Amino acid sequence: MLRDKLKTRAAALLLSLLFPAMSPASALGLDYWHTHGNQILDSKNHPVRIAGVTWSGFEAPDAVVHGLWAQDYRSILKAIRQNGYNAIRIPYSNQMVEANPKPVNISFSNATGPINTDLKGLTSLEILDKIIDFAGAIGLRVILDNHRSEAGTSAEANGLWYTNEFPEQAWIRDW
Length: 175
Prior knowledge:
Elements: H1 2-18, H2 24-28, E1 34-36, E2 39-41, E3 52-54, H3 73-82, E4 87-93, H4 94-99, E5 109-110, E6 113-114, H5 124-137, E7 141-148, H6 168-174
């Protein structure tokens, strides 16, 4: 029995040295995050490990994150959180910010019943606000990425952060 306990403790120690995992609280980071030198720290100055996923779509012609045609945004965010992530990168375009359309590629019901009902009639920016609010409420951070000028599905053709239609001043203003 004692031998088994020692083996278990030795294995745990070895794993912690080989794969230094942070506790869930420190991995998530408490309250606000800030930097010090090359580290990201939480409000108690504990190092934060960002484990994130990208949820694209606001930069695309649909002007809304993908998947809302099939699932409720809260279900998607909860699944991201339950899978151990603490951050979401959301790319967007200047065109989405400036035009701020009412996206149409959203479903309000699926096989499980009503979904996304609180997004009905909202603009892209209002939907983005709802997503950010709910993400924050369940402990997810959001990293906004001004990904491209015109709405599209790949890198900006000129390789820059601005275009003739959306000059650098528009990029700065839209931030």
